[in-house]
Amino acid sequence: MFALLMNPIYQFAAVCGNKSTFLGFPTWYKYLHTENLAGQCTVDFSFPGDISKILLAVVEIMLRIGALIAVGFVIYGGYRYILSQGNSDQQSAARDTIINAVIGLVITILATGIVTFVFRNLAQ
Predict the structure, then answer these.
(1) Reported confidence tier of residue 57, pLDDT bands at 50, 70, 90
(2) What are phi and psi of 35, to 5 degrees?
(3) Closest CA to 14 of 31, 39, 51
(4) How far is it, in rounded angstroms, from Cα 6 to Cα 100?
(5) Is the pTM of this model over 0.70?
(6) Long-range CB contacts (< 8 A, 24+ apart) of 35-41?
(7) Helix, strand or coil for residue 20?
(8) Cα angle: 56, vertex 58, 64; to 5 degrees
(9) Torsion sign, CA atoms 15, 19, 23, 28
(10) For residue 32, which of 22, 20, 46 has the smallest C-alpha distance?
(11) Can you give the residue range of the structural domain that contains 87?
(12) What mean pLDDT do residues 108-123 have?
């Protein structure tokens, strides 16, 4: 019954061999077993056991989006710093933006590595 409900989602998962999509984002089924049967990609999914694998992939996607946002804030902070024109208050605020964005970027990169490590070593 559950497999019939998930069939449209299985058909959405069209890329079997390459488990990354646009900008290197992983697919939601990155950690699941996929097969190419008669030209169609199918995802081998069991309901209670594979939920954690899907959640790990979704968390990894969200962390990568967070990293892109942090890079955007670094660029924004640099733009503000350039436009501060010697105003020390604006320079300080822009510098704080850059520092906080770099800290956020490091955290998201480390968290992505931890998620990958957890799956590869503990979930299998």
Answers:
(1) confident
(2) -135, 145
(3) 39
(4) 41
(5) no
(6) 40/11, 41/10, 41/13, 41/14, 41/15, 41/16
(7) strand
(8) 105
(9) positive
(10) 46
(11) 2-123
(12) 80
